[in-house]
Amino acid sequence: MSDTTLTALLDRDRVPLLYHTARNMQPRQLAGIAERKLRHLIVPAVPVDFDARYEGSVPASLSGAPDPVARNTALLRDALPSSGQTDFRELSQGIAAGEVTFRNRTVTVESASGVDWVGAGVPEPSTLWGLQFHGFAFLMWPVLGYQSPTDCTAVEETLEQWLRDWDRSGSNRIGQPAYLRRSWTPHAVSLRILNLVRFYAWAEDVLEPPHSARLRKLVYKNAAFLSNHVEHDIGGNHLIENGAALVMAGLFFPESGQQWVKQGLDVLVETAEQFRADGGHFERSPMYHAVTVTRYLTVIDLLKRVGREIPPEVQRVATAGVRFLRDMEPPDGRLPLLNDSVFGLALPLQSCLAYARAVGIEPTDETTSAQNAPTASGYYWLGTGRSRLLVDGGAIGPPHLPAHSHNDHFAVLWWADGQRILTDTGVFEYLPTTERQYSRSVEAHNTVQYDDVEPIQTGGSYLFGRRIEPEVAYEHRDGLTCFDGHYRTESSSQPQYSHRRHIYGSDTWWLVWDTVSAEKSAPIRSRLHLDPAVTVRSTPSDGQQHLVVSSLEGGSETGIAHIYPLDTDRIIRDQRPYYPEFGRSMPRTGITLRTDGSDVSFGFLLSTDDIDTVDVTRDGDEATGVQVGTVFQPLTSIED
Questions:
Q1: Contact at 8 Å (CB) between 262 and 251?
Q2: Percent with pLDDT over 90 in the chain
Q3: Average confidence score pLDDT of the chain
Q4: 595: closest CA among 483, 449, 495, 494?
Q5: Burial of 181 (0-12, 13-18, 19+ CB in 10 A)
Q6: Inter-residue contact 183 to 171 (CB < 8 Å)
Q7: Alpha-carbon dihedral 347, 349, 351, 353, rounded to 10 degrees
Q8: In 3-state terms, the chain is what percent helix, strand and coil (to 5)?
Q9: Mean pLDDT over residues 478-483, rounded?
Q10: Averaged over 508-534, what is the pLDDT?
Q11: Up-side HSE of residue 244: CA atoms within 13 Å toward CB?
């Protein structure tokens, strides 16, 4: 054990996180961690050429059936907006120059000696960049950007050279030291299979026989390896990627791959349990939900094209998953960046829905409103139409798999007349950096923080401390939609407190009222993070003061939304980071409402109209109703 590892294990702040993370893991997960460490220790030292064994398993005569995949890929391409296809074409041009761009980072991977697959400049698959690189995601750029390889000959020829180089490279052999953390990470293998088969189906007409045979061999070898390394121990979205890759590989080899079709479908039937009653994926990330549902849609379409029966569980997940996406669709039609979500990894929300329609999955009930909010997943809509509020009222992800969860209890996102106003933060990367810790913290979300306490302690890339279980009531009464959420922290290593958030919503205004109780007086902050496309200003001090939100587009100062702080001591405006894509950080305005004390109640009103009055009906410090009627408490000046 290295000194660094030992220091990390003995870190007083880290030990509770390791304990609470491990105690919630399933036995299969813990066994998988142990098995991978043993494989890394033993396999490279054994005098057996494991790579040659997998090479030897490839049939001498191996034919492929790419037509179903080619037709499915056409559906996928047609589901993209024209701007998306343009983006893929631009990325493709970098390939001809030996460059690959993932996560807003460009790396020159090609040199005079070939592609530097594991060089110092190329991140390993344990990073998002490396996972996409070794998963051959670059193959999809021309496939989705161009109808035919004849439209980008130089790109297609370069990719042929890269794949030839990968096949010959000694650094990519199975059994090399740390091979399960590098080229042969099962997640990367799954992506590699999916992308190789799609590339083969797209380029088949221009591939020379030696190269097409090499690609078939690569697909077979990778599928054989994945079949022996399905990630049952990790589960989650990884397992769904495994299942989809095995089905695609098996259907690509109709004569020799039927065992993979069965295995992959068994996996996808097993992972059907990952989807909640409203169709949402249990990791509670809209981005990963879109990724996983897209895989189910692809499998359904491929099975239809070859006349295979679709397991009822697979059909159910796809149908319910598409309905969830539609129910989560906000007024601007783009994914809410809740938990670990960014733009650019999954299909855009509208494209995912278009792909589902093309595959033949289109659930009934076309109306998304507060009445069909995806509450089983912990998401609650207040309002209808182009102005709506979304509340994250659920617990973190499944106890054994909270990796993509954030401290965002009762956070709100707000759209006014189709414009994003209050947004979540997104995520910069998964490495244990300052950006990672910030994006998961309560500070990065539109909710309340007591002192400097995190409701659940976080650490590393994915560690979570002792969990809390929010209690939520949600109903529609007297023309309003009402949300009432409450939780109490359970940590023994930091101050405990309770937080209750009442929200009352119509179609034009939303009152958010917070009550925080603790034994010790401390600063209590309610934070609001504005989308970078809007700006905020305060009204003149001689009038009824509040915050006016305006769009930056067109240079208009006309207010499109209004924020009225209530019963707060201080209002602070500052700049905060926003991570809409992996590897991209941009500034946006933040507003903090601060009140000090041990038992405090305060809040804010959001409105699409410039209104004069509001009345909060209270029972002690608890808000029990709301009515437009009484003058707002004037604001103090905003601190910059």
A1: no
A2: 62
A3: 87
A4: 449
A5: middle
A6: yes
A7: 120
A8: 40, 25, 35
A9: 87
A10: 95
A11: 29
Q: How many CB atoms lie within 10 A of CB 61?
A: 7
In this structure, CATH architecture of domain 230-367: Alpha/alpha barrel (1.50)
CB 186 within 8 A of CB 241: no
252 has pLDDT over 90: yes
Given a cut of 50, whether residue 630 has pLDDT beyond it is no
Q: Do residues 240 and 191 touch, judged by C-beta distance below 8 A? A: no
In whole angstroms, how far apart are CA 417 and each of 482, 503, 590? 21, 20, 21
pLDDT digits (tens, 9 = 90+) for 95-141: 988 899 988 888 888 877 788 887 777 777 668 888 899 999 999 99
Question: How far is residue 461 from each of residues 15, 97, 284, 289, 435, measured CA to CA in Å?
Answer: 15, 34, 17, 20, 10
Q: For 499-584, where are the alpha helices, taking DSSP H only? A: none
Quickly count: other Cβ atoms within 10 Å of residue 516's Cβ.
Answer: 25
The secondary element (H helix, E strand) that includes residue 500 is: strand 497-505
CA–CA distance, 126 with 528 (Å, rounded to integer): 33
Q: What is the pLDDT of residue 21?
A: 63
What are the residues whose beta carbons fall under 8 Å from the beta carbon of 565, sequence distance 6 or more? Answer: 546, 547, 571, 593, 602, 604, 635
Q: Band of the pLDDT at 384, cuts 50, 70, 90? A: confident
Mean pLDDT confidence for 301-322? 97
Confidence of residue 206 (pLDDT cuts 50, 70, 90): very high
Q: Is the pLDDT of residue 631 over 50?
A: no
Q: What type of residue is 50?
A: F
Is 500 exposed, middle or buried (CB count within 10 Å of its CB: 0-12, 13-18, 19+)?
buried
- Region 545-555 average pLDDT: 79
**What span, in angstroms and rounded, lies between the C-alpha atoms of 6 and 181?**
21
| DSSP 3-state of 459 | strand
Counts of helices then strands in the chain (DSSP H, E): 17, 23
Q: How far apart are CA 73 and CA 198, in angstroms?
A: 7
CA-based nearest residue to 293, from 335, 259, 255? 335
User: What percent of the chain is modeled with pLDDT above 70?
Assistant: 87
Question: Exposed/middle/buried for 24, CB within 10 Å: 0-12, 13-18, 19+?
Answer: middle
Q: CATH class for domain 378-639? A: mainly beta
The mean per-residue pLDDT over the stretch 541-567 comes to: 76
Tokens for 432, please give them.
Answer: 């244990």
Note the helical H segments in 391-472.
Answer: 434-440
User: 285 near 339, Cβ under 8 Å?
Assistant: yes
Q: CB 96: neighbour CB atoms within 10 A?
A: 16
Residue bearing the bigger pLDDT, 377 or 616: 377
Domain ranges, ordered by start, for the chain = 67-185, 230-367, 378-639
The residue among 580, 630, 604 whose CA lies nearest residue 526 is 604
What one-character DSSP code corresponds to residue 490? -
Q: Please provide the size of the chain in residues.
A: 640
